[in-house]
Amino acid sequence: MTASEQFRVQEESDAYWRVVFENPPVNLIDPDTVEQLADLVTRIESAPELTVVVFESANPDYFMAHWDFLSDRERVAGMAIGPTGLPAYVDNFIRLSRVPPLTISSIHGRVRAAGSEFVLATDIRFVGDRAVLGQFEVGVGSVPGGGAMARLARLVGRGRALEILLGADDVPAARAAEYGYVNRVVPDAELDAFVDGFARRVAGFDRTAVRTTKHLVDAGSLPHSNDEFAAGMKAFFQTSGRPENADRVKRLFSLGLQQPDGVERDLGRRLTE
Amino acid sequence: MTASEQFRVQEESDAYWRVVFENPPVNLIDPDTVEQLADLVTRIESAPELTVVVFESANPDYFMAHWDFLSDRERVAGMAIGPTGLPAYVDNFIRLSRVPPLTISSIHGRVRAAGSEFVLATDIRFVGDRAVLGQFEVGVGSVPGGGAMARLARLVGRGRALEILLGADDVPAARAAEYGYVNRVVPDAELDAFVDGFARRVAGFDRTAVRTTKHLVDAGSLPHSNDEFAAGMKAFFQTSGRPENADRVKRLFSLGLQQPDGVERDLGRRLTE
Amino acid sequence: MTASEQFRVQEESDAYWRVVFENPPVNLIDPDTVEQLADLVTRIESAPELTVVVFESANPDYFMAHWDFLSDRERVAGMAIGPTGLPAYVDNFIRLSRVPPLTISSIHGRVRAAGSEFVLATDIRFVGDRAVLGQFEVGVGSVPGGGAMARLARLVGRGRALEILLGADDVPAARAAEYGYVNRVVPDAELDAFVDGFARRVAGFDRTAVRTTKHLVDAGSLPHSNDEFAAGMKAFFQTSGRPENADRVKRLFSLGLQQPDGVERDLGRRLTE
């Protein structure tokens, strides 16, 4: 893939866009993703008629695997500072959570770590019944940097947020719905039609009513400042890539990390096998 | 009904009141309701022995349908300012959520939009298994004005609050419980006895313990100021009744809106048919 | 039991401690418990390698029954002031909720009132399928003093928190999970192995990642000041032991309160029989 192609925007209408993410082989989030997402968020912010955006994956097994552990570290360290004053990685997610239109993640397959932080930054998460979510960063020695602590604490409550974050295990669709991590589970075969129907319904409503109502939900559901996000991003930079955890990541690569048919299939369990 | 009869108070004892709402044919909330509710809230605030209040409907199919779209607009625009400094419509709900005794909504049938905002302003929602809740305002071009954004965001989390508010669809009892919109579902035939038993139990407890414990829950569960409510009320006045959405409401009236056997039965689905 | 033996610490490793609580016959919390818990929390705060602590009960029927109604009232009134500036009873729970390692309550049997406040002060609650939780204080005329209002409001939402606190009834395991009062239910026979496996998994992770991630969850899930806890503690002292409720407690003692085979088995129901 060239740098400009990871997010493919299909403008179904002025009011309804579908965005299909594709970064083979397992939809990793890498520095290109971060740059392209920054542009995409700006484009969404700037579309005056837009009422609803659906995010999908071109890969039915991986919505977004996680951050690319093989990323150029210098490029990451030099990541652009976004409008919030924070590095683009978390800046994207903060801005995404506040775009005027409704955003929906339609999740088939696995979405973990940075991928989970992406879907937590969208407004609604509808998932297929074989979807798997999770935040495994602690299992490889890192603090999640893209807002997982702030968002899960508010969405699922303290006890379940700590179980997800510190257990670092896979969360199957049914448990994710039980915990409130996702909105609801739909049979995999019906998910696309269900989400498209929901999105078209909202797209048909008055744009001002949708955007204003969404904006007024923010006060009771988003952190009042970006301090929590800044703290998480800082902790990520301080903890990731430390030599004492290098063997954990090395072992996972020996088992096929970042490849479709290895340890990624069952990462939660195999993290500690 | 004359203006004074929509809320019928049955004082089971000094500690336990049942309030039965009746405004045929579908229990709309209209300007009379607003004025009478203001008086009722004051009466509840002033009853020193009161420990628990149960709200019921005289109509098993409609707990409270929604705001009366045919209300005299001048009368609404001139609505009294309540003790919070806000128009009586939302002032009632803010004060209701802070009355000293425990308040319980015992819900048979449909409760949507302003009706949903009423039950969200009570402390506990017990529902029959055929109950249906929802906030369909966005579907007719309005922002909800009575606190739905502030209360749902805190009760069901951001993702599900946005699904309920922007999807504007019916929420059946089982999903409402799964999402935390209501406390729990009870078979319709058992609901009245269950709620009466629960209320009598609480009414038998020490009034000071009940009232003080309730008051101490407020800090962790209600907005710290009325700003969110003020913003919602303002947005309602700015968005409702705009000419660009007149056809949406007109179509619904042609299908029997505000009548028991028409579109009200299945409003969520028929909003976009 | 002598005063020093209620909490038995089993150091499985530097990273993983199991703490077994035993105060026969029903694991009451008494002034000795409060003093010993203060020491235990300090010991946990001071263990630099500790990553996870599991709390268990030596009694499979009673995790922690509740506060000992026969405690020496002068000793309680003179309870030490802890580091938070509040009496040790609530100070313990505030400090426990903020210790650096992850804390897990592994709950068999009944845990009510002060016992419920203890487990709410730990991070995660895993429960057996026959576990029973509850806050029955209001049913004997007291406001809960150890943080129940602040913690339940944030964990289960306003409606369900008020149902639990003012209904003062038993909450069986399945409903506790449905409401978010506990993380999840595990068959009783599997609970110990499940919790041990979860704890060993977390104990094997990088300590800094675990502790930092936990700390960053606090901002979105704990009260920002101790004011709510101070208010609850004050209300407890003002309401508990009032003569107008003496008969309620006396009746329960006549039915076997604080004994394993009497009213404790089914306290929620029998509170109002």
Q: Explain this structure to me?
A:
The structure is a homotrimer of 273-residue chains. The first copy, chain A, has 273 residues and is an alpha/beta fold. Chain A has a six-stranded mixed β-sheet, sandwiched between helices. A four-stranded mixed β-sheet of chain A has the order 4-6-8-9. In chain A, β2, α1 and β3 form a beta-alpha-beta unit. In chain A, α1 packs parallel to α3 and α5 packs across α6. The two termini of chain A are 34 Å apart. The model of chain A has no long low-confidence stretch (mean pLDDT 96). The interface between A and C is large, with 41 and 30 residues.
Task: Please render the helix and strand layout as text.
Three copies of one chain form a homotrimer.
Chain A: E1 7-11, E2 16-21, H1 31-45, E3 52-57, E4 62-64, H2 73-77, H3 88-96, E5 102-107, E6 110-112, H4 114-121, E7 124-128, E8 132-134, H5 148-156, H6 158-167, E9 171-172, H7 173-179, E10 184-186, H8 188-203, H9 207-221, H10 227-239, H11 246-254, H12 267-270
Parallel strand pairs in A: 2-3, 3-5, 4-6, 5-7, 6-8, 7-10
Antiparallel strand pairs in A: 1-2, 8-9
| Biggest chain pair interface | A-B, 30 and 41 residues
Unreliable residue runs of chain A: none
Shape of chain A: globular
Helical content of chain A (DSSP H or I, runs of 4+): 40-55%
Approximately what portion of the residues of chain A adopt beta-strand conformation?
15-25%
Assembly type of the shown chains? homotrimer
Q: How many strands, which pairing sense, and closed or not: the largest β-sheet of chain A?
A: 6 strands, mixed
Output the radius of gyration of chain A.
Answer: 17 Å
Structural class of chain A: alpha/beta
